[in-house]
Amino acid sequence: MAFDTALYLQFFIGLMAILNPFGLLPVFIGLTSHQSHSERARTNTVAIFTVVVSLVTVLLVGQLILQIFGISIASFRIAGGAMLVIIAMSMLKGQMSDVRRNPDEVSESVTRESIAVVPLAIPLIAGPGAMTTVIVYSAEHPDWQHLLGFSAGIVASAAICLGVFRAAAPLSDFLGQTGINIITRIMGLIMMAMAVEFMAQGLKDIFPVLAS
């Protein structure tokens, strides 16, 4: 079976639209406002690496894992939405949530990795929508050639995200702490709305009667 360039391009464009790194740039700035340039770069690298590993893993075994544990995509939406609510509440106060740091944490490097993996990589970048898209494409085109093509699309999308978030450092310097706080509160409100939408859609999928 030959590689289907049109299919992989369709997958790449769809995945980029869902990942939406430009829309997440203010969120990245807000979550990493307490970090230095080198720390922010490390957070960016760890987050994007996590995104690639997560989406490729979901591509290969995601559907099987969901079947084994009886987890639905709707459950992913609800769980992701609940996490976003917690983060958004802290952002509305101009603060970081507990995922940033607490006095019991011994190493700051652990804190940075925690921010990078949760919530930045999952669920903000590689959220339910991205995972759902990957699972659907892999289920419809399970041949290894297609899986390889989809994997290339994931890596290309992640590379673009890495470049976009790397530009956050000079933008953060331009805005200053006051500007960052304003963006953090605004994005907290938007994130809260996103969280409600995530959970509402998940509930509608589980209870279709709610959509009527």
Largest sheet: none
- Counted by DSSP, the helix tally is 8
Shape: globular
The stretches of 5 or more residues where confidence is low (pLDDT under 50) are: 99-113
Order of helices and strands: HHHHHHHH
Average pLDDT: 78
The structural domain count equals: 1
Fraction of helical residues: over 70%
Integer-rounded radius of gyration:
18 Å
Secondary structural class: mainly alpha
Roughly how many Å apart are the termini? 43 Å
Counted beta strands: 0
Main location: membrane
InterPro entries: Multi_antbiot-R_MarC
Keywords: Cell membrane, Membrane, Transmembrane, Transmembrane helix
Family: Belongs to the UPF0056 (MarC) family.
Draw up the topology in text.
Blueprint: H1 5-19, H2 21-31, H3 37-69, H4 73-92, H5 108-125, H6 128-140, H7 144-166, H8 168-206
